[in-house]
Amino acid sequence: MGPLPSPYIAPHASSSFFNQSWYPLPRFDDLPSCEGTPQGCAWGVFDGPNTTDVYGTLNLLTEEVIRNARDEITEGVSISLSWPLDGMKADLTGRKSLNHTLLTLKETGLGEFGWDEEISLNTQISSHWDSYCHWPHQTTGLTYNGFQCTEENVEKAAEHKGILPTQENWLQRGGIVGRAVLLDYINYAETHGIQVSPFEYHPITAQDLEDVAAAQNVELRFGDILLVRTGLVGALTGLNAEEQLGAMSSGASIGLEPSRSMARWVWDHHLAAIAADNLAVEAMGPNSTAAQSDFPSLPLHHWFLTMFGLPIGEIWDLENLSEHCRESGKYSFFLTSIPLNIPGLIASPLNALAIF
Fold first, then answer.
1. Where are the transmembrane segments (predicted)?
2. What does CATH list as the number for 16-86+124-355?
């Protein structure tokens, strides 16, 4: 299989992973192609004898991984990772913004004094997780593990659990809970004299991530949840709609390099999930597909969501987390996140906490 990537800590020889039917995981270069996809497809890796998997890399969050993650809690400090639901003032994509309406109890027909409220929004407008149905393979229309997320199938998923890889399945296995690591790229760039704007196409490479990890003296372990700080949410915070729109007018932004080499690095590090404080985790802009030719648009959405079944989180607020990590010198922590409990859910506010 060759050497493991660095920085990476594999399970101990006595680990219960060796009792898992899917362990050891194949290396990226050993993954096949599946039903019209390029080589590198993980469909079937986590399937059971009579089951088609809907969890993807969340399978790596085993009881052992979660128990070991407890060791990260030493201070009793918790930090929210959710940007306000109305943090995005500008209408960048035509998605419905937050609508929060207060109602008196008399308006609801109860006849007493008090308050209710109604909330509506598009789940993509602020900090959220994407389910595997969010971005299918654009050529075949298939999502992770060969599922087809049509409107009809999503309606069926609301009645029959486990027939689509939508987010209510994540709740069935207890949400997303485990050890997480922050790689603070924007802080690394600023302290190393690297000129970066969150609002320009700036691909963060696999080597960049390894350099940041080394500078922070932090290691990645089997089943970790990786958070990458690009500085974009911090730069948007406090701006009004016109200012945000001006900042994002080019359509370009910083993010992970949208390439096969980045997909290989992420898979071979055996991460359970990945999230960032930018719009799409991956860098976007006119050159965003120049580094690869496997997918014509949003390559890492294809690799992570469709090919691997690896959850991606977008528009996370990592500012307070970054400050605490710098002050404490500790960049690993316990993370807990639970999506909304709605059958057939495509994406959800993350409701995430980092706990030290």
1. none
2. 3.50.30.50
